[in-house]
Amino acid sequence: METKEFTSRRVFMMSLPIFCELLLQLLVGNADQAMLSGYSQNAVGAVGNANQIISIAILVLSMLCTGATVLASQSIGAGDKRRVTVVSSVSALLVLCSGVLLSAVLLLFPAPLFRLISVPDALLPEAVRYTRIVACCLAVQGAYMLVCSILRSYGLVKEVLFTAVLMNTLNIGLNALLINGLCGFPRLGATGAAISTNISKVAGFAFALILLYKRTDARFLPRALHKPFPARELRETLAISLPCGAETFSYQFSQLTIMKFINRMGTVAINTKIYCYMMANAMYLYSVAIAQATQIVVGYLVGRNDLGAIRGRVWRSVIASIAVSESINLLIYLFAEPIFGIFTRDPAVIALARQIILVEFALEFGRSINITMVRCLIAVGDVRFPVGAALFSTWFIAVGLGWLLGVHFGMGLVGLWIGMAADECFRGILFVFRFRAGRWQRYAQAPHAAAQVQ
């Protein structure tokens, strides 16, 4: 039986603000693309390619925050407030150091990175400018994500949503002024979008930090990092974050490889891919939301050593994830022409997009399972299996099969999408068998064994 405070209704209510936050980010991102499409189609392609690179850095920082989320949730579940501050301080050190390093890479080497994925010369200058500007605030963006992760660990998901509303409202307002030059502001295109992103992230971080200090016991304290240095918390954070970061980096690099194939297929394929990714984000948005809520709950349950409630909680979240994502997929497929017509009037792009959305039915089924299962396995400490499965499957199936169908057999973008769908479904099957086998329980028991030793 689930404990009273972790019923399906509670998890659903936790997932709603997270979903609204993610939806807001998606809508703002789509609004950016829509505004840029009014400025120039080259700007759309440039920012789309730039975000392929930037997303690697952001997701690496996000994975470092995952370690903080898991350990903070377990500590809150166990009632250990002191350890929450230690975990927060250690994670802040990791995020800031990583953010500075990633910023340096993107500031110094954007052009070589874009050449690796065969970005067309016409898009390169604008993509480089956008990347360098956004890179200046990567450490701030990482700090913002960390603060929001800790707030979610305390169940303050509505507060995170409110912060996101303020931040993204500022972002879209600045975009309106700077992309197309409204109200006497300069018409900056993609450069304006990058400046808007940085300003809004700094404002969002400042507001989130105020909420953290007002509403929680967590603190970022330099003295928590010495006398003695919290080596155990550092090891545990890295034991979660490094494998997840390696998996994320590998996945994003595989996506860059796929993008390289697409960039050689012409402008129609490039823009179709960008617009279909936007639609795919809408499809799996609730999957991410309920997975994040479930991960927090599973962390609490691990902290309380209440393993019996975990299994049913995870299966219910998986079913909800599949139902929502496939329903949204069906709506997008039925109304593909008016939806894609918002962004483009090119009939070739719209026709190709309809074929891609059809493949998405299989892709989202597998992805819904993966997103929830992976986060829950990580929450109990079973990190290596999902990482190993992803490293194998993304390269041999998503990239390998995608190349075989899309490039070798000439199926184009549809063939590449079939490869990605096969990858998601294969990993989904693996994770179902892993969870049913119950081997994750020994990892969930490990924190309590370590605590007893100490």
Summary tags:
454 residues, globular, disordered C terminus, mainly alpha, single chain
What does this structure look like?
This protein is mainly α and 454 residues long. 83% of the residues lie in helices and 0% in strands. The chain has 16 helices and no strands. It has helices spanning 8-39, 41-77, 81-108, 110-116, 124-135, 138-153, 157-178, 190-215, 231-263, 267-303, 310-334, 336-340, 347-379, 384-408, 412-437, 440-453. Helix 2 runs parallel beside helix 5 (124-135), helix 2 runs antiparallel to helix 9 and helix 3 runs antiparallel to helix 6. The longest helix is centred in the N-terminal third of the chain and has 37 residues, at 41-77. The model is unreliable at 448-454 (pLDDT under 50).
At a glance:
The protein has 454 residues and is an all-alpha fold. Helices cover 83% and strands 0% of the residues.
N to C succession of SSEs: HHHHHHHHHHHHHHHH
Task: Output the radius of gyration.
Answer: 21 Å
User: End-to-end distance, in Å?
Assistant: 31 Å
Strand percentage: under 5%
Number of strands: 0
Low-confidence stretches: 448-454
Q: What is the fold's blueprint, element by element?
A:
Layout: H1 8-39, H2 41-77, H3 81-108, H4 110-116, H5 124-135, H6 138-153, H7 157-178, H8 190-215, H9 231-263, H10 267-303, H11 310-334, H12 336-340, H13 347-379, H14 384-408, H15 412-437, H16 440-453
Helix pairs in contact: 1-2, 1-7, 1-10, 2-3, 2-5, 2-6, 2-9, 2-10, 3-5, 3-6, 5-8, 6-8, 7-8, 9-14, 10-11, 10-13, 11-13, 13-15, 14-15
